[in-house]
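Hey, quick one: can you model this chain's 3D structure?
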Amino acid sequence: MSKRLVNYTSLNNLALLYYNQGRYSDAEPLYLQALDLMKQLLGQNHPLVATSLNNLAGLYDNQGRYSEAEPLYRQALEIAVQQLGEDHPNTQIISDNLSRPLDQS
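Sure thing. Here's the predicted structure for all 105 residues.
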């Protein structure tokens, strides 16, 4: 595993830990760094970029920042459908997540 991919995993895991502790302001910059790193390593349309977008959107969603979450979920869903297909479990998770901010609108 490349060092940069290990860095992504570490950033994402630490962000998730902070997220689960309710430390959203600590989690956000780590999710943003993880997203940027994935885009650099794998390109804009990789499934791990969709995962990173979904993670960041989930953070915003849980903070009630629906107008910020929705476009990230939509972007993640577009990538997931293109790369994984509509029936893939990850695509379905993102689709379900997208319905939450839409319900709040």
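One thing worth noting: Residues 24-42 form the longest helix (19 residues).
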